[in-house]
Amino acid sequence: MATYKLFVSDMDGTILHNHTRIAKETAEVVREAEAQGIRFAIATGRNYFNAKEILDEVGLSCPIVSSNGGRVLTETGEVLHEIDLTTEDALKVVSVLHQDHKYADVFYEMYSEAGLVASRMDLIEAAMENLKQNGDDRSLEMYEFFRKRYYVNEDVKLVEDIEHFIQHEAGRVYKFIAFSSHFEKMSALWAEIDEQVDGVYVTSSGDDNIEVMANGADKGHGVTKLAEHFGVDLSDVVVIGDNLNDVPMFEVAGKGIAMANSHEELIKISDHVTERHDEYGVAKALKRVMNGEWK
Fold first, then answer.
1. Residue range(s) of every CATH 3.40.50.1000 domain in the chain
2. Where in the chain is the domain with CATH 3.30.1240.10?
3. What number does CATH give the domain 6-83+217-290?
4. What was the pLDDT predicted at 71?
5. Is 90 exposed, middle or buried (CB count within 10 Å of its CB: 0-12, 13-18, 19+)?
6. Alpha-carbon distances of 126 from 146, 180, 190, 292, rounded to whole Å
7. How far is it, in rounded angstroms, from Cα 222 to Cα 72?
8. Which Gene3D superfamilies match (predicted)?
9. What does 230-275 look like in DSSP terms, one character per residue?
10. Distance from CA of residue 28 to its chain's centroid?
């Protein structure tokens, strides 16, 4: 019988069978775990509303650590914790991103109290074309993801003057995420933001992106807040993920499980490695925790 009390899963590359959905089979295993007394939660870089929409599609209701720890909400949407970028730091991040001579093919999104926001549609179109031309599986998967985001669902607000938007309309700014299929530019952008903006934490959920939050907005802090809310000791928490932005929650939890498709640095610090995200790796790991195989 399982002894762990809280199981927290990342989304992309982890519980999502692809970039858009949770498999029904996985959702059933989550419900089995909850029936055994194991609480289930999500910790993701995605914004809260997008994460909740994906969970709703398979009938799951659970707490969500969103924006990499920028926001922590209960299953009913009650905010337990929020930490946002200062206006000054948000503007500094934008100033680095807008150096077109360096980052001409990089586009970015901003998660804010006013919703998911993007600027410079020309950069988005250029990046989309690069993804399409690359032709590898990851690029084509990302191309389809962004095509639906911008041209089908249209769930991103486009603004002409993002500096003005940050100062007057955004409200709280929780996160920036920047994308490029030119991996060396992602590394350079990471280093430059890290050096020039003091109040931020920079991480990544893949070689083709970087994520920027306020210091203290990470999945480790988010999982800790959830555990405190439920009165669960961190030693009784299991986390599962696939990339560098999952490292902070691996560092605080009693058990860390990496996906077979994980970044090598995450695998190094994991207690166990489960199957790939497209091989029901989360469901299989959760079953092993439930039956006591992974104690």
1. 6-83+217-290
2. 87-214
3. 3.40.50.1000
4. 95
5. buried
6. 12, 10, 21, 50
7. 6
8. 3.30.1240.10, HAD superfamily/HAD-like
9. HT--GGGEEEEE-SGGGHHHHHHSSEEEEETTS-HHHHHT-SEEE-
10. 23
* CATH no. for 87-214: 3.30.1240.10
In whole angstroms, give the CA distance from residue 221 to residue 31: 26
Q: Which long-range contacts (CB under 8 A, 24 or more apart) does 33-37 make?
A: 33/2, 33/7, 33/286, 33/289, 33/290, 36/1, 36/2, 36/290, 37/2, 37/5
Closest listed residue to residue 253, CA positions, set 231, 230, 233? 233
Taking the model in full, what pTM does it have?
0.89
Cβ(43)–Cβ(203) below 8 Å: no
Tens of pLDDT, residues 73-91: 999 999 999 999 999 999 9
Strand pairing report for 39-43 and 6-9: parallel
Q: Which amino acid is at 137?
A: D
- Which one has a higher pLDDT value, 199 or 123? 199
Q: Does the pLDDT at position 181 exceed 80? A: no
